[in-house]
Amino acid sequence: MTAKESMIVVVGSANVDLTTFNEVFPRPGETIFGKKFDLGFGGKGANQAVAARLCGASVGMVAKVGSDLFGPATIRNFESQGIDATCVGIAEGVSSGVAPIFVDPSGQNRIIVVKGANDTLSPEDVDAAAPLLRKADTIVMQFEVPLRTVYHAVRFAKANGVRCILNPAPAQPVDFKEVAAADYFIPNESEAEVITGIPVTSADEARKCAQFLLQQGMRRVVITLGERGCLVAGPEEVELIPAFKVQAVDTTGAGDAFIGSFAVFLGEGLEEKEALSRANLYAALSTTRVGTQKSFFKRPDFEKEWRNRGGRL
User: Quick one: DSSP state of residue 96?
Assistant: First the structure.
């Protein structure tokens, strides 16, 4: 482990995940019995914040929650994890974000996100959080809050010389000029396809997609490829960073585990390739447990796995 502590601030979403496990899913008009249910805290932003915290970083959250029973509980969850929640506001008269998740026996998931209070996070909220954001070595964002707020946060990061990681999830059309200042643009396969119109079903297609994104002005592109690892692209090179084999039971939150841990490893001063390889393992390990935030490994447990697997690059 490195001695340098990373400081991560996440500008993004906080949801409550309602996860149902079953062999089949109901047809229209049909009611069936599910096998198992799990309730937990989620949202891409919150998940990435928790992953970063469990990896050993100091973490702050800039978000909005609802004035329902989930809102105060979400703030308490941040505080119990040691995450600075002073910039998490409550939107009166609005529900908290929720995410009903349906998981099949292979561990694959289908998710419907109801944004609720997340949709009220504004550029003004980003400005109000400026003192916290300026302390960060990395600001992390996703697309579960309004794009105008994301674009504003990217501009804030550039103006203040803070590293910026943008995870364009869930995917939606992007104004490339607004996000080109991000240091890292990190979609998964399906998000990359939605944003660029280029299919990403193989490493070669991922290369073409990444090169297209670089041509749009992106500085560094990382496309996560699930069990194939991830592809990193910059002006000089494109490289595939291999994955680690695990027995997956629930892939929910794996992408968030990747983003949060990668931000920490970079912030600690690790070389990019090692940071990506470590993030690959951290994300893979999260799929061996059920849930999102509660599936993430604590740093000592991760380091043990990293050593056991030879810490390969």
Answer: P
Domain count, the chain: 1
256 is catalytic: yes
Q: What is the extent of the structural domain holding 53?
A: 9-26+36-308
Quote the CA–CA distance of 33 and 68 in Å, as a whole number.
Answer: 28
> What pLDDT does 311 receive?
66
| Tens-place pLDDT, residues 88-126 | 999 999 999 998 889 888 878 888 889 999 999 999 999
Which CATH number characterizes residue 265's domain?
3.40.1190.20
**Of 175, 250, 256, 301, catalytic:** 256
Amino acid 313: pLDDT: 45
CA atoms of 200 and 177, how far apart (whole Å): 23
Q: Is 31 contained in some domain?
A: no
Tell me if 313 is assigned to some domain: no
203 is a domain residue: yes
Stretches in the chain below the pLDDT threshold 50: 1-2, 313
Listed in sequence order, the residues at least 6 apart from 271 whose beta carbon sits closer than 8 Å to its beta carbon are: none
Q: Edge-to-edge, what's the strand order for the sheet holding 238-241?
A: 84-91, 58-66, 7-11, 138-141, 163-166, 184-185, 221-224, 230-233, 238-241
The answer to whether residue 2 sits within a structural domain is no
